[in-house]
């Protein structure tokens, strides 16, 4: 029996078997069928027709191995993609942290230039997360005073940012 005859006789059987393994992925089953016959031709001397195993069973065992190898390759591709994605996220996070830290340093430098009262209002509001009423109470001033002082301090910080841009 020639190689072409073997292919003609068993290709459809092997293809259907691989189709079930690949959850009806026609393209993958077709590619794996080709690979199965390639592997079978390479190792035809390993098949012994001793009545114990049918040729179709031998081909299916090769097909299953081809399928398992493809699953393993896919798993490794997926792990690599995930690893690269994690690396990219890590790099992005580090870069973001750097710029966030630079922004913090700039903010504190700008805030340090303010008067003590304005600086204290900014810190209590932003870092202490306190309401204007609470800030006024702590500093012995009114809620409105705390609100206006905070607003003016923000304006001075923004002015400092714009002065640094020119």
From TrEMBL:
<dbReference type="InterPro" id="IPR036388">
    <property type="entry name" value="WH-like_DNA-bd_sf"/>
</dbReference>
<dbReference type="GO" id="GO:0016987">
    <property type="term" value="F:sigma factor activity"/>
</dbReference>
<dbReference type="InterPro" id="IPR013249">
    <property type="entry name" value="RNA_pol_sigma70_r4_t2"/>
</dbReference>
<keyword id="KW-0731">Sigma factor</keyword>
<dbReference type="InterPro" id="IPR039425">
    <property type="entry name" value="RNA_pol_sigma-70-like"/>
</dbReference>
<keyword id="KW-0804">Transcription</keyword>
<comment type="similarity">
    <text>Belongs to the sigma-70 factor family. ECF subfamily.</text>
</comment>
<dbReference type="InterPro" id="IPR007627">
    <property type="entry name" value="RNA_pol_sigma70_r2"/>
</dbReference>
<keyword id="KW-0805">Transcription regulation</keyword>
<dbReference type="Pfam" id="PF08281">
    <property type="entry name" value="Sigma70_r4_2"/>
</dbReference>
<feature type="domain" description="RNA polymerase sigma factor 70 region 4 type 2">
    <location>
        <begin position="113"/>
        <end position="155"/>
    </location>
</feature>
<dbReference type="InterPro" id="IPR014284">
    <property type="entry name" value="RNA_pol_sigma-70_dom"/>
</dbReference>
<keyword id="KW-0238">DNA-binding</keyword>
<dbReference type="Pfam" id="PF04542">
    <property type="entry name" value="Sigma70_r2"/>
</dbReference>
<dbReference type="GO" id="GO:0003677">
    <property type="term" value="F:DNA binding"/>
</dbReference>
<protein>
    <submittedName>
        <fullName>RNA polymerase sigma-70 factor, ECF subfamily</fullName>
    </submittedName>
</protein>
<dbReference type="InterPro" id="IPR013325">
    <property type="entry name" value="RNA_pol_sigma_r2"/>
</dbReference>
<feature type="domain" description="RNA polymerase sigma-70 region 2">
    <location>
        <begin position="7"/>
        <end position="76"/>
    </location>
</feature>
<dbReference type="InterPro" id="IPR013324">
    <property type="entry name" value="RNA_pol_sigma_r3/r4-like"/>
</dbReference>
<dbReference type="GO" id="GO:0006352">
    <property type="term" value="P:DNA-templated transcription initiation"/>
</dbReference>
């Amino acid at each position: 029996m020639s190689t072409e005859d073997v292919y003609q006789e068993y290709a459809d059987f092997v293809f259907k078997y691989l189709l079930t393994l690949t959850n009806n992925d026609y393209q993958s089953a077709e590619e794996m069928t080709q690979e199965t016959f390639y592997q079978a031709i390479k190792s035809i001397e390993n098949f012994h027709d001793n009545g114990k195993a049918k040729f179709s069973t031998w081909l299916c065992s090769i097909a299953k191995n081809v399928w398992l190898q493809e699953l393993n390759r896919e798993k490794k591709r997926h792990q690599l993609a995930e690893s690269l994605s994690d690396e990219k996220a890590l790099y992005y996070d580090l870069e973001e942290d750097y710029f966030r830290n630079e922004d913090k340093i700039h903010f504190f430098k700008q805030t340090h230039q303010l008067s003590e009262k304005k600086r204290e209002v900014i810190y209590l509001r932003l870092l202490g997360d306190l309401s204007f009423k609470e800030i006024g109470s702590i500093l012995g001033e009114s809620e409105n005073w705390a609100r206006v002082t905070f607003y003016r301090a923000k304006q001075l910080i923004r002015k400092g940012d714009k002065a640094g841009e020119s």
